[in-house]
Amino acid sequence: MNKIACVIVTYNREKLMVEALRSVLSQEQAPEYVFVVDNASTDGVAETLHQTFDFDQSHLYYYRSPENLGGSAGFSRGISLALETDCNWVSISDDDAIFQPGYFVALRRAIERHPRQNVFSGSVLLPNGKHDALHREMIINGVTLTTRPVDEALYGKDFWYDIFSFVGVLLSREMLERIGLPEKNYFIRFDDFEYALRARKSGSFLNVHDAQILHKTNYTRTSIAPWKEYYVMRNRIVSLFKYSGKNLKTRWFCCRFLCRKLVAIGLFRNRWGQAFPLIRAYLSGYHDGFQGHLGRNLNYLPR
């Protein structure tokens, strides 16, 4: 029998975290184990969760980090805890991901149909009903690791793809033990990208179209925060050098990546008011990416 452990990482999203956890626990054929990893939230989520749910530490677990080490460290810690159980599979997601009815039924069926597959996922939907294109992508350049979203037309059936996000992905224990834990020192951004590159060594990923997850996010490519953009720039460069090497092509790509980010500040009116913080963030991320400096940067933390 396949046993699933579900890991949800949260930080200061009290109401969403309660909704996300309920969506897991109310599932038909729900995961055998559920882990909530709290990244030192300050909004009272710990108290609310313990008042609402019975954390018996045998089926439903709560772990609180002593400080906010970022989503990357949260996922790394959560998977590590999950592997201490006898689970065969680990599901990971953020606290703004709401599992739709039948999600785990669909994934369990997919496991039976594809016994040699190591990575499954569900389709990620936005509140407006459209698919969130940021979470299932294809690599279009194997050197620069440039990606494009999976075509919308493919979502009507199961499909194979190259890059997943940490929203609604299911990973086999066998693969996890082989490739190790996510890179905890990324803090946020591109930790899932790097992990997907590692996981690709075990083959492509299968998205199961009738497993759906609602992503209650307010993030778009035009709504950005300087502190987050630092990690986007730094971690994209670090990941590229790790998998493609530090050569003329990858250095040129990084230069172009920086230039595009700087030019975009002038193109999007909503960025003009934070132009100088964005410029500093991009330049700092560019420098630290080239130097391979990872970890939490105290100058770029949640506001």
TrEMBL record:
Gene3D superfamilies xrefs: Spore Coat Polysaccharide Biosynthesis Protein SpsA, Chain A
Tree of life domain: Bacteria
Keywords in alphabetical order: Glycosyltransferase, Transferase
SUPFAM superfamilies, per the entry: Nucleotide-diphospho-sugar transferases
InterPro entries recorded: Glyco_trans_2-like, Nucleotide-diphossugar_trans
Residue span(s) of domain Glycosyltransferase 2-like: 7-125
Pathway, per record: Cell wall biogenesis; cell wall polysaccharide biosynthesis
GO MF term list: glycosyltransferase activity
Protein transport keyword on record: no
Cross-referenced Pfam families: Glycos_transf_2
Similarity-based family: Belongs to the glycosyltransferase 2 family.
Protein name: Glycosyltransferase
Organism encoding this protein: Lactiplantibacillus xiangfangensis
